[in-house]
Design brief:
Number of strands: 5
CATH superfamily of the largest domain: Winged helix-like DNA-binding domain superfamily/Winged helix DNA-binding domain
Structural class: alpha+beta
Largest sheet: 3 strands, antiparallel
Order of helices and strands: HEEHEHHEE
Helix content: 40-55%
Strand order of the largest sheet: 3-5-4
CATH topology of the largest domain: Arc Repressor Mutant, subunit A
Number of helices: 4
CATH class of the largest domain: Mainly Alpha
Length: 144
């Protein structure tokens, strides 16, 4: 091993140790024992139980309801998700609480828009629901 590659190997080893510690902490917290963050990829992946969205080296923490909304939208793969489907996903009465849904989506969009390159865009479809689309990315990953 050359002198130049030794620091790189040490950094890689420290990164692996950090991931192991993170796994142990997640197990202690009662969360699934999985790698806390996937390696950077151009294909977004999302698991709502962690509630942290990553894109282009930035992250944003989501509330449980925001994570459920994002999960439902991402599962739709760009298709319309109706207001009643989203209400059902977060436990709201679609007939009475659509105003609450609108507030939750607004907060989710505000959090994503604070990022320089959020990787996704949530668009309202007037009177029907919401659609999510991917924005071109250099790289993005969502916590697992």
């Amino acid at each position: 091993m050359t002198n130049e590659s030794k620091p790189v190997a040490e950094i890689s080893q420290l990164a692996d140790q950090l991931i192991d510690v993170a796994k142990e902490l997640m197990e202690l917290a009662g969360r699934p024992s999985a790698t806390p963050y996937e390696r950077v990829s151009t294909v977004p992946v999302f698991r709502a139980e962690i509630r942290r969205y990553h894109a282009n080296g930035e992250f944003v923490d989501l509330s449980e309801i925001e994570a459920r909304i994002l999960d439902a939208l991402l599962r739709s793969r760009g298709s319309l998700v109706t207001k009643s489907q989203l209400c059902e996903a977060i436990g709201l009465d679609p007939g009475r609480q659509e105003g609450n849904l609108k507030s939750y989506v607004y907060r989710l969009k505000a959090k994503l828009n604070r990022m320089r390159q959020p990787g996704v865009k949530i668009r309202p479809i007037h009177g029907a629901g919401y659609v999510i689309s991917e924005v071109s990315l250099n790289s993005a990953v969502i916590s697992t």
